[in-house]
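Example 3.2
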Amino acid sequence: MKHIITIVIALAAILTCHAAKPTAVSTQSSFMKHFAWGIDVGSSIDLSGNDLSSIDISAYFGYKNAILRTLGIGVDLRNSLGNSHTMIPVYAMLRTNFSSSVTLCFADIRSGYSFNTLNTADKSNGLFLSAGLGFNLYTSASVKSHIILSYSFNELKPDYSLGFPRFTHSLSAMSVKIGVNF
């Protein structure tokens, strides 16, 4: 897992350096001016007592304009630290500062469905919701870096496969992520 995180951070740094190079004339097509993609890396702390604190990697793509930083779809890989459980939320996302001017903060809202490997039954999958507040670290015409503080909810159904109930509460978590988007 450490190697994956190292590779993702190295890739983000390389892409950031490449994307930040100034060009004399902008030759981007209209499509590319409105195409956004990015990655976030961080960690989530389980607030519900299910021992599901995790390392998170997010990837997303979508549409951008002056007001919308990203309106698109994405997927997270949330690998639990204390056990072998993995949650893979697939979601629609809205990232905006509700203004066409440059601001320090932006909202990050995600809603979708999470595929969970908590037990062998399909019943462990469920609703995924996330709301957060992001802070711009660096902004240029081609790249933006940020840090996001967010709350997320993963619906979990009780698991009785071991003879006693596990995951009697849905997962509530607080997350801190750092990322870049282009």
